[in-house]
Design goal:
Blueprint: H1 4-35, H2 42-68, H3 77-101, H4 107-114, H5 117-127, H6 136-153, H7 160-185, H8 194-216, H9 218-223, H10 233-263, H11 266-287, H12 294-319, H13 345-351
Helix pairs in contact: 1-10, 1-11, 2-3, 2-8, 2-10, 3-7, 3-8, 4-7, 4-11, 5-7, 6-12, 10-11, 11-12
């Protein structure tokens, strides 16, 4: 039986990882919203973020290879284009539309609408048979949908164009996370480590978003004094620095999510995500002047109830012995490629006692 000190250390570690995740997740939301006030080129911003994430992923992979002496997985072109491309396209559209919406809507409306992604994830998980049908899922759908309806119905800062963008991003996000789960569960691809997944996704994401950027922002970016027609070098450096900070936050968000799941569990990330949304709304109301009525808060509470019910159902299914509601990973011939980044051998052996701690979060 473990001593109280062990549990205390584990609790403190979990709290630290959650706060680390909050710093990047909440930080990038407010940072992008702040940046969009003066820099009205969300697609160009996303392209810069993708470039930075790819560079940092490449450096991280090189560091991991030097540290372990083990080669990182690199997919052949045929497999890369056929297996990774659909996930990359869905991911880039999700991120691009989400950033684009900041030009039109408040953070509170963005946060609430983005919560509807759970509905689309459920739909595509059932469609791809990643999750078993459950009558309680109907109640989950009703609660989340009702909460979203109540929030938008009485919203005094509602913008239809931005709302449609986020809703479309949530729909594509359902496809994105379902395809990501399928991609990471294909043991023969060797992309169980999200750093490797991020490395392979970014180039195709960049190519997928670039035509849309040229169509909507290409001419404007070429003629703006903030970038390519800059009159003073200081203005250009300011734009590049602010964009680079956002890119590092985006990479940090992906890294912190992975670190939280690998050291705790996907359930911890899901629960932390609920409280993160509450914190985001409170901060938006307090510091950005977002207005929320009693009906808005009630709708948000109803939506979170649906998300919480979904998490509770997944946990119950695991505890009663029916196994996880998603398919398990197969064992690879090179198991070192599957070990989570920065996770020590002793921690890995210790954490395998809990089944839910190695469930893929879709």
């Amino acid at each position: 039986m473990a001593c109280p000190t062990h549990f205390l250390c584990k609790a403190l570690r979990t709290v630290g990882l959650v706060l680390f995740y909050y710093a990047f997740s909440i930080g990038i939301t407010f940072y992008n919203k702040w940046l969009m006030k003066d820099f009205h080129f969300p697609l160009f911003m996303t392209l810069v973020h993708l470039t930075i994430i790819f560079c940092l992923s490449t450096l991280t992979r090189s560091a991991m290879q030097c540290w372990t002496g083990k080669p990182r997985v690199t997919l052949p072109w045929k497999v890369y284009l056929s297996k990774v491309a659909p996930t990359a396209l869905a991911t880039t559209l999700d991120i691009g539309l989400s950033n684009w919406s900041f030009l039109f809507i408040t953070i509170s409306l963005y946060t609430m609408t983005k919560s509807s992604a759970v509905l689309f994830i459920l739909f595509f998980s059932l469609l791809f048979k990643l999750e078993e049908p459950n009558p309680f899922l109907i109640l989950v759908v009703v609660l989340i949908s009702s909460g979203l309806f109540m929030f938008t119905l009485k919203s005094t800062q509602f913008n239809l164009e931005g709302f449609i963008m986020v809703l479309l991003a949530s729909f594509i996000g359902g496809i994105r996370w379902t395809l990501t789960q399928l991609l990471m569960q294909k043991a023969e691809l060797g992309l169980q480590n999200p750093i490797d997944t991020m490395y392979h996704l970014q180039p195709l994401m960049f190519l997928g978003l670039f035509p849309l950027f040229l169509l909507n922002e290409g001419l404007s970016v070429s003629t703006t004094e903030k970038l390519f027609r800059v009159s003073e070098l200081s203005h250009l450096l300011y734009s590049l620095v602010t964009l680079s900070v956002g890119g590092m936050l985006a990479f940090g968000l992906g890294f912190s999510e992975f670190l939280l799941v690998s050291r705790t569990s996907s359930l911890t990330l899901s629960i932390a995500g609920i409280f993160k949304e509450v914190c985001t709304l409170l901060l938006a109301v307090e510091f950005l002047g977002d207005k929320m009525s009693t009906v808005n808060w009630l709708g948000f509470a109803v939506c979170l109830s649906g998300i919480s019910l979904h998490i509770g159902l997944k946990t119950y299914r695991n505890k009663v012995g029916n196994g996880p509601m998603v398919r398990n990973l197969q064992v690879r011939e090179n198991p070192h490629l599957e070990l989570p980044l920065l996770q020590a051998k002793d921690d890995y052996c210790e954490d395998t006692n809990d089944e839910e701690e190695h469930e893929i979060l879709y």
